[in-house]
């Protein structure tokens, strides 16, 4: 009964994120490059990738609402499921042509937008990379994201902690590793953060990657597609975990892939007698009940409302001719250090889920 109550609260918290917003302006370090300002009613372009997880669907809705409430005209576009890169390039070009004053980009492929952001810049638009960095161009003005490397570190640590708790008698642990789509600039950063924690334990023999697949090229999941993760997990299990070989845990970079990995493990009967520890990210509604019942061990709370609110705060500063606040110089896109506003991600397990999701931010904060 108690379990049910907590689950309901957690799901309600996640669902409410869709309807709410929050301002989170913290430490400030100025950066140069403020635009000359622009008027209320100006167009703000928002180019988002395909809907690879719930957070992207929510972001589009929040940008529509938040930009309108801030007094501007929102032009929100998603890259479709096919031809995503060229379609996103075309969308950015069309936003530029239509005179957008700011173009916010959740890149489908951060390495392929150089000429489009350069044209946007020449036309006088400011470019904000949202959630995923845009690489190898000097024409990206700001980056706003959750601390991606920290996300990976939290996932790596959760995997270790979870296995220790679930397999108290084990001295060593058998694991497998998954990473995100190789066209997403975040994927290697998540993986780097996780390996910072896991590699020393692989080196000292505490962790054994039974398949031997530890290179990001081997662990990648094209398109962040669940089916690709499920197929790879099926193959890994069939080739390496026959008989009594126990699987203790899997590093999964997000919730969509975690659920696919869980399905594969269940089909192979490797969830018995003890459910392996599976990590995740994004606090997706379908994963929260799995976390409350221990089927998925952890996720990461990266409240999309806060990220969108921070982006809108940047847009408002740019409109007023002010330099937006930034708090990190950690992100070099290959050509320059991009002034960045980083928000802190939070690890969620069943122990802190209710607490983590209880502070539903207010709509006023997003829009004032
Ligand atoms: C990443 C994002 C994650 C997850 C993933 C798949 O770039 O930071 O939160 O959504 O894409 O969509």
TrEMBL record:
Periplasmic binding protein domain span: 44-322
SUPFAM superfamilies per UniProt: Periplasmic binding protein-like I
A cellular component term, taken from the record's GO annotations: outer membrane-bounded periplasmic space
Gene Ontology molecular function: carbohydrate binding
The entry's keywords: Signal
Pfam families: Peripla_BP_4
Predominant location: other
Coiled coil: none
PANTHER family to which the protein is assigned, alphabetical: D-XYLOSE-BINDING PERIPLASMIC PROTEIN (PTHR30036)
Official protein name in the record: Sugar ABC transporter substrate-binding protein
Gene source species: Lacisediminihabitans profunda
């Amino acid at each position: 009964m108690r379990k049910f109550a907590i689950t309901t609260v957690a799901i309600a918290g996640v669902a409410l994120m869709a309807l709410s917003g929050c301002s989170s302006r913290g430490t400030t370090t100025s950066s140069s490059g403020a635009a000359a300002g622009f008027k209320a009613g100006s167009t703000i372009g928002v180019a988002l990738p395909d809907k690879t997880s719930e957070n992207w669907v929510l972001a589009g809705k929040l940008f529509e609402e938040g930009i309108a409430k801030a007094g501007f005209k929102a032009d929100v576009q998603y890259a479709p499921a096919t031809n995503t890169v060229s379609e996103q390039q075309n969308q950015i070009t069309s936003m530029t042509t239509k005179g957008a004053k700011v173009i916010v980009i959740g890149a489908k492929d951060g390495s392929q937008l150089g000429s489009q952001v350069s044209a946007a810049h020449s036309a006088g638009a400011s470019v904000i990379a949202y959630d995923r960095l845009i690489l190898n161009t000097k024409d990206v003005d700001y980056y706003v994201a959750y601390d991606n490397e920290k996300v990976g570190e939290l996932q790596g640590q959760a995997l270790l902690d979870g296995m220790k708790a679930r397999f108290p008698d084990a001295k060593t642990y058998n694991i497998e590793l998954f990473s995100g789509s190789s066209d997403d600039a975040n994927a290697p950063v998540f993986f780097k953060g996780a390996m910072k924690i896991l590699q020393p334990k692989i080196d000292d023999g505490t962790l054994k990657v039974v398949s031997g697949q530890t290179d990001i090229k081997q662990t990648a999941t094209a398109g962040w597609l669940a089916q690709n993760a499920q197929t790879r997990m099926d193959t890994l299990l069939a080739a390496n975990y026959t008989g009594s070989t126990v699987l203790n845990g899997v590093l999964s970079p997000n919730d969509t892939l975690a659920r696919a990995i869980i399905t594969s493990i269940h089909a192979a009967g490797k969830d018995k007698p003890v459910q392996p520890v599976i990590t995740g990210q994004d606090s997706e509604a379908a994963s929260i009940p799995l976390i409350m019942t221990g089927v998925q061990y952890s996720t990461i709370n990266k409240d999309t409302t806060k990220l969108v609110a921070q982006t809108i705060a940047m847009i408002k500063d740019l409109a007023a001719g002010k330099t937006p606040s930034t708090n990190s110089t950690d992100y070099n896109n290959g050509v320059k250090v991009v002034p960045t506003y980083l928000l802190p991600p939070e690890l969620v397990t069943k122990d802190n889920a209710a607490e983590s999701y209880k502070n539903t931010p207010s709509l006023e904060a997003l829009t004032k």
